[in-house]
Amino acid sequence: MLKKYVTVAVSALALAGLTSAPVMAAEMGAAGEPIKLAMLEWTGAQISSQIAGKILEKAGYKAEYVTAGNYPHFQGLADGEISASVEIWLNNVGEVYPKVLAAGKVEDLGTLGLKTNEGWIYPKFMEEICPALPSWEALKDPACVGLLATPDTLPNGRFLDYPADWGSRAATIIADNNLPLTAVPSGSEGAMLSELRAAEAARTPLVMMFWAPHFILAEVEVGWIEMPVCVDQSNEHCIMPPDVNKVVWSGFAGKWPAAYQILKDFRLSTEDQQKMMLAIDEKGQSLDAVTTAWVDENEAIWRPWVDAALN
Amino acid sequence: MTAPRVRAWHRVWGGMLALSVLLVALAQQFPQLGGFPTGLVLNLSDWLNAAVTPAFEAARPLGVLLSALAETPLAAIRSALAWAPWPAAILAVVLIALYSGGWRLALFAAAALGTVVAMGYWPKAMNTLALVLVSVPAAVGIGFALGALAYRFPRTQPALIVMLDVMQTWPAFGYLIPLLILFGFGPTAGLAASVIFSVPPMVRNTLVGLREVPPAIVESALMAGARPGQLFWQAMVPSALPQLLVGVNQTTMASLSMVIIIAIIGGFNDIGWEVLSAMRAAELGRSLGAGLVIVLIAVLLDRITRGFARRGPRVMQARWLLAGLVLALVVALVLSGQDLLPGEQGQRWLRRIDGWLLDFVAWSAPFFAVLRNAITYGVMLPMRIGFSGSASPMVWGFALTPEITAAYVLVSAAIALLLGWRSPQRGIIAGFAALLFWTGLPGFPWPGVFLVVGVATWRKGGTGLFALAMGGLALAGLSGLWVPMMQSVYLCAVAVLICFAIGGALGVIAAESDRFSAFLRPISDTLQTMPQFVFLIPALMLFKVGEFTALIAIVLYAVVPPIRYVEHGLRNARADLVEAGVQMGATTWQMLWQVKLPLARSSVLLGLNQTIMAALSMLVIAALVGTRELGQQVYVALSRADAGAGLISGAIITCVALVSDRLLRSRSSIHRKVPE
Question: Where is the signal peptide (chain A) (predicted)?
Fold first, then answer.
């Protein structure tokens, strides 16, 4: 096996010398061994992962999908048990990721290309009862705050924050602007979605921290609060759209060089991802069918990545 | 009744009460007496990490070896189950059910597995089954070996029992990080957690089984010239077999309840993963379907293993079973490779449930808002911030004026004295209750907590228990987790009170009516085996994020033990004494309160004990709906991969569980077997 690769490598080098091509094609590497892609908990990441895998299959690789929890899976990436994870939200990586990145056990391949958003949202019907929305000034209006108050937060309004284990800056932003709100940690993503759905169904007021793209935004109509000017641009006092990157195991480039190139070029647009999320989560179509359809219909997008890596 | 005698311990507790009152009064002036002083907090988790992380990393080669050992059979079983077409697999299981439990069980097996196929969960269910089929033999093997060794060396038994209690009460989320470091990413870390949790019932049943081997059997074996090995394997083990099979049964159940923990790490695409994903997307229908699969597998495995434990005639002979299994294999070979699974129809049906739930939420929101506010204002806030905190214009609509304070002190002193006149014990209890109601549980001065817990454990359990309790409290204080610990105790205390009110009443009715009992049993079974995550979604939609929803989730799980134990105790009350009560013309009400319940006292206390254990075990899951107690600390530690912090939070939960268990157990001197 190895000998064959060496020959291929040598002849490729010779060829490159002869034609003096500007880009050198990458090796296939261990194409017989499956590339293990992480399937994280949320639909968006599963779509990104399946599409990446199907493109790699078109290039002649074998892809395998490993279901994995977001936090524990960084250990798997560091050990090579998982080869690649293509949708990592850098605002929610826990504390293992920075450590293994610093130790050189994983490699960041740059952005996935999703246009993200993060901020404070409310169900759209609230604009009827708090007319100052979407301006943040609405949250200073006692009448509006009174509607948000609960026994746990009286006399303040209740602000539904990210779960305690995600890290949060709502409390500092509330303090920076003297808002009469109390941030309540939500415990889990499921808890946030349940609250948003129930608020929409029962028309109870709610203001909470959230992010996009997310499938629930296609289901519940929400408004984004126009935030006050940040005290400073630090992560503590200011909400900025998070980066979503692709990360691979440190041995990836050596084992599957062409796949490494493909993943490096791989991009997915927010619109496409959102359409697919809707088809899966709302219309009940299968993940496999939806992503296969995307790959079949968008050869113009991914063919150049494969060609650039192989030819 | 004669005049009450004032005993020595009345004086002790009277003194404690006086001291506590003094502390509460002083805490108004000196806030450092209220919460644990922050100046004393040490950076324990960093120290622990410095010790634990390198140790586990050093043991990594061993972990890699073990995980290779575990994953080879796992992969083999998984691919075998994935290969077998579902009609063949169902045929095989139905035949085993028929052999083990007869026609009704076989029918149930066919219906249950058919439901799994129809809902579209068959492949995931098979992956879950593969996990159980690896973890149960491992747990049974380890448990049997430990139990047999402990039987051979009786001196090790006290230490072993403590270890088993720790294994059963330590929240698995608390030690997942070290396991992840040791075994790396993959199902092995989850399997290890599952084995740790499910070994104890096997050890306990092995010990009981070996102890209860009739001496006559041992003697006759010895007289027949049996060597030690022969005596053990050919005389004692067969004689203890029914009890051992009970152990296998309980180990299987414990192992299934850990399926979700394995899924937290991921890597296996099983039913637990499906429950977690559905919870994450807040989809009730999908999570209910996946939860139902776990319940069905649990009930099937339970009935089948129990059927094997039963002695008596079988519907069919073993060789017919064998022939049937060969037939199933033939069916599998014929059908293999064909795609027989139904499409997405079942999943679409499940999704409809979500629409119904939202309609219900929209329709019932005003009612549930009133319920939530009533319990929050009436029960939860007073227990958390006490009368002194609740008496404000914000909460109860009136301010805490000096007059109101004076009135509260006078009224509670009067009640305590009045009750104390008849019985000093009641007076002291009333005094403490009034004091707690004033401060709220988390606000009770910390030196007072040390004092009261110290005296209680010293008197009831001696030095060992005293050291455990003081160690746990000191750990909570020094690691900066005093407030979360008191929050946990408060949340569990409220939950246990509600569980006993509801569960006790249901148990009483079930003891009176066979029909109600039969109606209640499947509900209880479902509440205990359905993954709790499933209940969180509707609870969240109706009651919003926060402590109240956490309380509902805890109550739904912990309400089962009081139902079972109260019913069991009442049904088994001594018939002659009950008869005597009837002869004396007692009314139904008098019979219940003055005859039957006192007779059932030890069973009820055991039920209380189990309720507390169940409530504590739910703390970590309740953290998913946004609480501020120890369970949340365990989660935060898990996401930060902070092994030390996770271990400390877990250790404190275990201490609380063990101390309350031992305190209650020394009261109920009669140990009884767990009723079903």
Answer: 1-25
| Residue (of B187, B385, B383) closest to B270 by Cα position | B187
| A201/B361 Cβ within 8 A | yes
As for the ipTM of the complex, it is 0.81
Per-residue confidence band for B149, with pLDDT thresholds at 50, 70 and 90:
very high
Which position has the token pair 């790959």?
A295
User: In this structure, are A146 and A104 located in the same domain?
Assistant: no
| Mean pLDDT computed over every residue of chain A | 85
Task: Verify that A121 and A214 share a domain, yes or no.
Answer: yes
Give the chain B residue whose CA is nearest to the CA of A149. B394
Query: A184 and B280 in contact by Cβ < 8 A?
Result: no
Q: Is B421 on the interface with A (CB under 8 A)?
A: no
Residue of B nearest to A201 (CA): B362
Q: Quick one: A108 and A257 in the same domain?
A: yes
Q: What is the pLDDT of residues B67-115, one digit of tens each?
A: 888 889 998 999 998 888 889 999 999 999 998 888 899 999 999 999 9
Mean pLDDT over all residues of chain B? 85
Determine contact, residues A287/A281, Cβ cutoff 8 Å.
no
A-chain residues near B383 (CB < 8 A) = none
Q: Is the pLDDT score of B673 beyond 70? A: no
Residue B394 touches partner A, C-beta closer than 8 Å:
yes
Q: Which fold would CATH assign to domain B60-337?
A: MetI-like fold (1.10.3720)
Q: Is residue A63 part of a domain?
A: yes
CB-based contact, B632 to chain A, within 8 Å: yes
The fold of the B445-676 domain, in CATH, is MetI-like fold (1.10.3720)
Assess whether A136 and A162 both reside in one domain: yes
Shared domain for A108 and A146, answered yes or no, is: no
Say yes or no: A125 and A108 in one domain: no
Task: Say what the pLDDT of residue A25 is.
Answer: 66
Q: What percent of chain B has pLDDT over 90?
A: 20
- Check CB contact under 8 Å for A285 and B394: no
Min Cα–Cα distance to chain B from A159, Å? 11
The reply to whether B60-337 and B445-676 are identical in fold is yes
| Residue boundaries of the structural domains of chain B | 60-337, 445-676
**Interchain contact, A72 vs B276, CB within 8 Å:** no
Tens digits of per-residue pLDDT, B34-43?
778 877 788 8
* Residues A301, A205 within the same domain: no
A45 with A185, same domain?
no
pLDDT digits (tens, 9 = 90+) for B113-125: 999 999 989 999 9
Q: Does B279 touch chain A (CB under 8 A)?
A: yes
Average pLDDT (A30-54) is 91
Give CA torsion, residues B249, B250, B255, B260, to 10 deg.
Answer: 120
Residues in contact with A276: Cβ distance below 8 Å, sequence separation at least 6, in sequence order: A47, A290, A291, A294
CATH code at A102? 3.40.190.10
pLDDT confidence bin for A13, thresholds 50/70/90: very low
| Angle at which helices B284-309 and B514-529 cross, to 10° | 110
Cα of B374 to nearest chain A Cα, Å = 10
How many domains is chain A partitioned into structurally?
A: 2
Are the beta carbons of A287 and A280 closer than 8 angstroms? yes
Strands annotated E in B349-404: none
* End position of a domain, from candidates A191, A224, A257: A224
How many angstroms away from the CA of B246 is the closest CA of chain A?
Answer: 34
Q: What's the pLDDT at A102? A: 93
Domain edge (last residue) among A224, A259, A284: A224
Are B632 and A164 in contact (CB < 8 Å)? yes
Out of B181, B268, B632, whose CB is closest to A67?
Answer: B268
Interface of B with A in 637-656 (CB under 8 A): 638-642
Contacts of B537 in chain A (CB under 8 A): 190, 194
Nearest Cα of chain A lies from the Cα of B576 at a distance, in angstroms, of 52
Residue A295 lies in a domain: yes
Interface touch A189/B362, C-beta < 8 Å = no
Shortest Cα distance, chain A CAs vs residue B268, angstroms: 6
Q: Which domain holds residue A91?
A: 2-114+244-310
Contact A185 B276 (CB under 8 A): no
